[in-house]
Amino acid sequence: MKIAILGCGVTGLSAARELAQHGIEAVLFDKSRGVGGRMSTRYADAWEFDHGAQYFTVQDSDFQTEIDVAMADGVVSQWNAKALYLKTGALSADTGRPRYVGQPRMNSLPKYWAKNLDIHLGCRVASVTQEKGWTLIFEDGTTQSGFDGVISTLPPAQAEQVLPDNFAKRRAVKSAQMHVCFCLMIGLSVPIDPGWDTLRVKNLPIDWIAMNNAKPGRSKAVGTIVVHSEATWSDENADTDREEVQAVMLKSASALLGLPLENAPHIALHRWLYASSKTSPDIPCLRGSGLVVAGDWCLGGRVQGAWLSGRAAAQAFL
Length: 318
Ligand SMILES: Cc1cc2nc3c(=O)[nH]c(=O)nc-3n(C[C@H](O)[C@H](O)[C@H](O)COP(=O)(O)OP(=O)(O)OC[C@H]3O[C@@H](n4cnc5c(N)ncnc54)[C@H](O)[C@@H]3O)c2cc1C
Prior knowledge:
By secondary structure, the protein is α/β, with parallel strands linked by helices. It has 2 domains: 133 residues, FAD/NAD(P)-binding domain; 170 residues, Polyamine Oxidase, Chain A, domain 2 (Alpha-Beta Complex), CATH 3.90.660. It is built from 8 helices and 20 strands. It has a 7-stranded mixed β-sheet. Strands 9-2-1-13-20-19 form a 6-stranded mixed β-sheet, covered by helices on one side. The chain has a 3-stranded antiparallel β-sheet with strand order 10-11-12, with no helix packed on it. The chain is globular, with a radius of gyration of 20 Å.
């Protein structure tokens, strides 16, 4: 069997690794220049920002085993962050399960999982068709055929565009919605210590600030601050002028830090159009005949959900 996997984020990599463990050939395709999808790192001069997933938590015992192996190999660390939560003017500890991060950067983990896989980058899939076998048609008009099955791990809106019209679970894909998120990246010449590493906030245009440089394995020579916008505000401002979005987020972050950030040596904004799940089918994957749709959004989002969904999609072929 030879299975085509669309997307090289955590879901796609998890599916490919599960297939490989059972001797099934997997060929992965991604439109981006690197692997990892939303578990990613942005490089800018002296600064590096984990501008997608900030950390991940583990509840599933099989996922824990996988993470333990990655920790033993030095590509994952537990992050004992000083984490605070600001709600209606009061600060409290932002408690929860242990937080894990890729080391030395978030994309170290997907890069580690990608080793020895057959990966084709810079390939944007335009459509998927079935005649004798399965064929992928790319944006540039080229094709790849001869697959016995296909796993899509694209966000739902993007999956919907490439799936064949007769895919049985099309309605479930269509009804899954995702929130937008803006990520503001601020580079400083030295790190700052506001008394916390992460601050979760309520009722503001932003809902998260992290001192990225405080994560294990990151350079302590410069300061790197990551700010995420709040989900509802992000959806409402998805098409607002970027300079305006940046100004609002900078103002909010400056006020929270008690530090003017407008003249920081590096400021950049990234828009994630499909960042986190708004509505989810809440099943590991959507199975059709020879075509399985997976992704973090099938299980409500997050890194662990992506890993579980990818494994379930692969198991559908075993
Ligand atoms: C701002 C932000 C903060 C987050 N914070 C956390 C967090 O703190 N903790 C946590 O657990 N999770 C967090 N997440 C979620 C986490 O990043 C995701 O759950 C996980 O990375 C999703 O993996 P995935 O493989 O399902 O999807 P993705 O990573 O989105 O992978 C899909 C891949 O498909 C590719 N693709 C799309 N269209 C096409 C096409 N037509 N052809 C070819 N390739 C295509 C994309 O390039 C991408 O690489 C966050 C996400 C964002 C954006």
